[in-house]
Amino acid sequence: MNVAKKESKQGTIRALSEAKILEAAQEEFILQGFKGATVQSIADRAGLPKANILYYFKNKDNIYHAVLERTLDMWDEGIGDIDPQDGPAAAIEKFIASKVRMSFQHPGASKIYAMEIIQGAQHLKDFARTYLRKWVREKAALFQHWIDSGQMADINPYHLIFAIWSTTQHYADFETQILTVMNQADYEEEDEQQVIAFLTDFVLRGCGLK
């Protein structure tokens, strides 16, 4: 095996191992919280020796940061870019669909993010003060432009964004409650599309777009 192939194989093994560890860590942090989770419990859930975990990550803090970074990357990729050319209705539809899909397909990512925020965002303060604040202000300004030009109802654009976040993420963060009330063991295939359709209609009506 030449050097390039060997390095490629090693890189693949490393990526797979790290992904397995982070999946296990995410579950542990959700179930036990940051304080309750341990490197050993993460190793047990991943089915790996503790030494293997520490080979890839220095300590629990390092693992937690990696889990959050992966979540933020996923959040950033899946958020759906709102384009001025879309117009308010299409932009809202895209925004809601993107957030609902993330909640249904990656509920753990939403839960770990919510838990971090609820606990004071100690590990996400820089993200919240820089990227997140900038993103929200830019999108709020765009909605305000559509409001000022008479393309949608006169509402508070910040609260519109907060409302979309909360209603879409509810299906991940409160998954157990929803499934219990609906008497379902798990979400069904049509649930995701039904939620997208309902929330889109609900928000568009509230924005005077229907």
TrEMBL record:
Domain HTH tetR-type: 15-75
GO molecular function: DNA binding
UniProt KW ATP-binding keyword: no
InterPro entries: Homeodomain-like_sf, HTH-type_TetR-like_transc_reg, HTH_TetR, Tet_transcr_reg_TetR-rel_C_sf, Tscrpt_reg_YcdC_C
Source organism superkingdom: Bacteria
GO BP field: negative regulation of DNA-templated transcription
Name listed for the protein in its UniProt record: TetR/AcrR family transcriptional regulator
Organism per entry: Thalassotalea euphylliae
